[in-house]
Amino acid sequence: MLKTITWYSLLLCILAIPIFESPKNLFLGIASILFFISHLNKKDLAKTLLLRDARLGFVALIISSALSAAFASDPTLALKGSLDFAKMYLIFVIVSSDFSDKKSILIIIFGIIISTSIASAWGITNLFNQNATNIELNSVGHVNHSAIYLSLVIAMTIPLFIKNIFNSFLQVLSAVLLSTINLIALILSGSRAAIVFCIVALFTIIALAKNNRIGIHIITLFIIIGITITVSNNLILFQKDISFSSRSVQERIDIWEDAWNMFKTNPIIGVGAKHFRFHSKSQSGSHAHNLYLNIIAQFGMIGALSLLLLIFMSIKSAVSGLKLNSLSEAAVGALIITLGVGFLNTTMHTEHGLLFALILAIGQADVS
């Protein structure tokens, strides 16, 4: 009974991630409480919470962010910021521990694809009705963060076709049609970093796959769709000013300098979560627009070591999974996008941080 309620709470959380703000936190909270109760009854909670995989990296990030909060100018605000890592940890642990069978994983993946396509269709409609100037997924927000979320979903979807884990032609057709909506939204976002690293991830996934013929067909279809949309969108990807005279580029460089100065001033524990804007001279400096600088600025060297642990454990799990019948290619794609785009934007952030953790858990699942 507990596991059934946990399962439906988890699904509702996943469906809400790109669409609604409050419900996802509510349902993740319910799923987490029931998960803890269930494993307390089984007397395996401690072992489950600290298995040697990516969860150790998330635990380290939770600890480092909590330590920085203790010395932050507003400890309460900093603690709230550290909850992002706690949510990533919880969703990873729940899925990888209790719902890693093929049937559950397929339902979870379709939940992600469906909810993202609904949010994408909503964003596309708002764009063409001129209710918005950029594509945004309702709960994810800013166009760059929405593009990161979309690229993660697309990279997660490709291994499904390569592994051919669908149970029917209807599932295949649904996945193709819904993924096309997500691809259209990604292209219309014009976020080149997300698009470039999504492409890198897709070709890496195909290179790693044993049966890459299906993957090549899917990539070819996506390329045709992508080129068509890009051309019809007046080549927006190639019209942006990326010179150092560009105001947005210069602002980003200024923010990076602010982040580095914060690290030099607070090298061990940083300034604390959600405190970046208090120490940045830039008006748009709520975060560092760089995963690595954001971590060292807010959590110092302890945070940097925690991130390295997460990366190491995630890569280790993905490499091990490549030898098995798992979806580790999806985890590889998520790592490429998160770490690659992380040089130009703050990845592992709220909604796409949750999705990143979710895909890492999916990547460990046995789909034989």
In short:
The chain is mainly alpha-helical and 368 residues long. The protein is built from 15 helices and no strands.
Description:
The protein is an all-alpha fold and 368 residues long. It contains 15 helices and no strands. The chain has helices at 2-16, 22-42, 45-49, 54-70, 75-98, 102-128, 143-163, 169-189, 192-208, 212-232, 247-265, 276-279, 291-322, 328-341, 350-363. The longest helix has 32 residues, at 291-322. Residues 235-239 and 241-245 have low confidence and may be disordered.
Structural descriptors:
368 residues; globular; single chain
Total strands: 0
Q: Largest beta sheet, briefly?
A: none
Proportion of β residues?
under 5%
Mean pLDDT: 86
Q: Which residues form runs of ≥5 with pLDDT under 50?
A: 235-239, 241-245
Number of domains: 1
Shape: globular
Helix fraction?
over 70%
What structural category characterises the helix and strand content?
mainly alpha
N-to-C SSE series? HHHHHHHHHHHHHHH
Number of helices: 15
How far apart lie the N and C ends?
Answer: 27 Å
Give the C-alpha Rg: 20 Å
Write the layout of secondary structure elements.
Elements: H1 2-16, H2 22-42, H3 45-49, H4 54-70, H5 75-98, H6 102-128, H7 143-163, H8 169-189, H9 192-208, H10 212-232, H11 247-265, H12 276-279, H13 291-322, H14 328-341, H15 350-363
Helix pairs in contact: 1-2, 1-6, 2-5, 4-5, 4-13, 5-15, 6-7, 6-8, 7-8, 7-9, 7-10, 7-14, 7-15, 8-10, 9-10, 9-14, 11-13, 13-14, 14-15
